[in-house]
């Protein structure tokens, strides 16, 4: 079990890095979106490529941050049920949910998305809109995001089993640190402070 807990910690570090890196895409998406609106308003110019990059970035944020959300225990729960369960009961529910819902769904999405991405790359699929972008870069986010979600699901499964075996503290009792928005604001402030020196 010690080896599995080390694997869980390795997965957690990877997911944390990917999730925190993807936070920056929110800033990029905001800049692109606002720039696009300003250019459209002032110069009466619009580009399908600029519009599409916005939803590409949104897809990247959603797919790359989903595993991080699971790791931070911020995913949607049915509080009416989970609030009444003991920590051990909640761990059992998490194990059942991971084994019978999360992992099968992830495997299905991976199974269906890999041929889709391969075909898109093979034909170098372009957007049907004039001036649109290549489609395979956004499609490749599906298997990447869901593979990372599967890894985090395995990590959470290991932690719940270790908790039930009495090897670790309750993984659902996570420390409440700064929100992702607060972390991003702090990182931007630190970067500005470093540049000011």
Quick overview:
The chain has 197 residues and is mostly helical. The chain has helices at residues 2-43, 48-71, 79-82, 87-122, 136-139, 141-164, 180-196.
Explain this structure.
- By secondary structure, the chain is an all-alpha fold.
- The protein is built from 7 helices and no strands.
- It has helices at 2-43, 48-71, 79-82, 87-122, 136-139, 141-164, 180-196.
- Helix 2 (48-71) runs parallel beside helix 6 (141-164) and helix 4 packs antiparallel against helix 6 (141-164).
- The longest helix is centred in the first third of the chain and has 42 residues, at 2-43.
- The radius of gyration is 20 Å and the shape is globular.
- It starts with a helix and ends with a helix.
Q: Categorize the overall geometry.
A: globular
* N- to C-terminal distance: 48 Å
The string of secondary-structure elements, in order, is: HHHHHHH
Q: Work out the number of β strands.
A: 0
Main sheet attributes: strand count, strand direction, barrel closure: none
Q: Which structural class is indicated by helix and strand composition?
A: mainly alpha
Indicate the proportion of strand residues.
Answer: under 5%
Low-confidence stretches: none
Helical region count? Answer: 7
On the 0-100 scale, what is the average pLDDT?
89
Rg is 20 Å
The proportion of residues forming helix, as a percent range, comes to over 70%
Task: Give the arrangement of secondary structure elements.
Elements: H1 2-43, H2 48-71, H3 79-82, H4 87-122, H5 136-139, H6 141-164, H7 180-196
Protein traits:
single chain; 197 residues; globular
